[in-house]
Amino acid sequence: MKKATSKDREKPIPGDFVEISLMKKTYHGTLLESPGESSILLLKLKSGYNIGIIKKDIREIKILEKFTEKKEEKIEIKSKDKPKIGVVMTGGTISSELDSKTGAVKWLTSPEKLFRFYPELFEKVGISKIEVPFMKGSEYINYKDWKKLAKIVFKLLKNPEIKGIIITHGTDTLHYTSSALSFFLRHLNKPVVLTYSQRSTDRASSDASLNLECAAVAALSDIAEVILVGHATTNDDFCYALPGTKVRKLHSSRRDAFKPVNAKPIAKITRDTLIPLTRYKTKGKENPKIDDKFEEKVALIKVYPGQNPDILDSYLKKKYKGIVLELFGLGHVPGKEWIKKLKEIRKKGIVVCAAAQTIFGRLDPLVYSAGRDLEKSGIIFLEDMLAETALVKLGWVLGHKEWAKNYEKIHEKMLENVAGELLGRLEE
Amino acid sequence: MKKATSKDREKPIPGDFVEISLMKKTYHGTLLESPGESSILLLKLKSGYNIGIIKKDIREIKILEKFTEKKEEKIEIKSKDKPKIGVVMTGGTISSELDSKTGAVKWLTSPEKLFRFYPELFEKVGISKIEVPFMKGSEYINYKDWKKLAKIVFKLLKNPEIKGIIITHGTDTLHYTSSALSFFLRHLNKPVVLTYSQRSTDRASSDASLNLECAAVAALSDIAEVILVGHATTNDDFCYALPGTKVRKLHSSRRDAFKPVNAKPIAKITRDTLIPLTRYKTKGKENPKIDDKFEEKVALIKVYPGQNPDILDSYLKKKYKGIVLELFGLGHVPGKEWIKKLKEIRKKGIVVCAAAQTIFGRLDPLVYSAGRDLEKSGIIFLEDMLAETALVKLGWVLGHKEWAKNYEKIHEKMLENVAGELLGRLEE
To answer: How far is it, in rounded angstroms, from Cα B125 to Cα B217?
Structure first.
């Protein structure tokens, strides 16, 4: 950046570092391109957060530093003698850099860019391959993307040069994707490590570097499971490896947003060590297998007090095949009329499963009579399975036509511990 | 109970304490009446949990103690010189005793029964009045019950003899009720304390006694808010007073199931002391007011990956007036097509609000461009308000016809901190 001259000062443009004075407050930050005809001016603060300022409240804007374009340097990456990993980039904050002009994200997809942002990663491992099946914020990821991702990971599983796989991913639906990969990829022979960042790389508080370095440690370990690696606490000191089917985003912005649910972390990971905390799967005798069948007509419904069960008819009409209900407490519906309606849609072929709205803990329909009635109506109570995991698993189970044609088989599969999603995580 | 004789041994009946032998396991517990034509035998274990045993797996049943009916004694409750409180019983585990014959719950509604189960409560306070607006498991409570409850509490607020009010309530939807009362009852002049138990009174691990005793301490305090009092940890040693609009059931069975969300506990309470931990409201100059208007056509929808937004049309068709969406991350929808659909239903008059699926943390639609587009589509982003609280508040706001006819007013009211539901809990 160059110092602002008096002439520049007249017209602040996106990318400029400015001082904005309102009646009572003054803000410093980088001006972003404002969306459309907006009456709001967007400013990226030093903390990394964007704020919107109502234009008519602004008394003065001073340009402190003018915007200048950065030039990309060509970097030579030396990693010949290091153990090799595969990297799959799918988007999200960790795979993006901020365009300081527009505030929009630009994707980091070349090894050079990755190196420039995360040089520490290349001290530990050699990157055999960077695959980019798609680049998007994870809120837009759906089952088709899970399939694409599984196919690419499967290819890397079979590549003997590669010790482990790191997948960078947005945080919003990361726990759904980790579940999907856990069901789609069977008999793993190496670690499949999903990682993320909650704060963008241009922020001092970014969690990307530590998460990636710990992901590299995990990728070289003997864990043969789909795991999620990220900050264990709000400090930037160590990470946890968390089980792919028993993890949930539990904070919108904290660096330790992901917490294990009804499970313990698999390992504690620092920048150079991995300390196992619980039992995990290691490479077995069978070869890796991909099994990515998926029925897209599955839905998740969280119940609320006084809810009218008639909404279930809409799912019937729209030809849904399966529904996961997030029930109250140990597994209760919001009214007696629900039992009749659930029997009805069950008879018409919709498979209904139940998970806990409390998130933590296990369902137990036998404790109260209401739960016993409900169980008789043909709902499959999924013990301590997370609702998010349950949705993915239901789609996966119903995607198998040979299972889906037989209700007993569906029931059996939903309660079989396929990928550590049930209480006894590794009883398989 | 009397010892079983050899003759009794032949026919075990519900209420008997028995030993059941299977091929490999032996269970001890009280036989419960089995539901209907069931092929399952229900047994209440000493831990208090019920288990179902498949009848054909049973090799032998031994009766260890025969069932005998308990007789109710008449008890004289002395509480003349003690400070008076009002008690409102609404059902739930805390207001029930187990019928050892059927396993069904029987409600405790008389002061005598309450005394027999919770004598400690009567050492601290005199009970001026026990009100019973309804008795039910809280999963069946809806907005009509919230109104009934508010009316009864309001009556007790105006009774000068009463220092505070304890409401016993089931746990499943307790946090929805605490929100409803927080909005329905304005300008409180005394504590309104909701309490509960997660384990029934017949279990050694019951949390009912400590919760009730701590509730009594809270009911005599100067807190003039709707609060929830219950176990702070899994130990039976002290409770927290939690803010009525910032609390959520986060475990299906643990005694410390209720946790504050985006807030701190108001106070730590032992059996005889209350230690304030954060600022709280005390009695003001204005008289208590009841404002229980409520629009029942409000819904909560938790989004999931790849979800088809067409389901929103069903809510339009069913004439819903408001929807709270539980969005991903900082406030994101599962696909770009959602923005169009949301604009569409917004135009047709449905008010759409957003809360965080992550539970903890705050929404911030300005960070990513997807969120900014969404904000322009007319969604009201509810900062760090809990989705459950948001649903109740939306029903309350839309219930006021004078507000509901003006979208700007609705927007303003949803983002006004009415009962500590937003970040600055007590900025009102």
So the answer is: 9
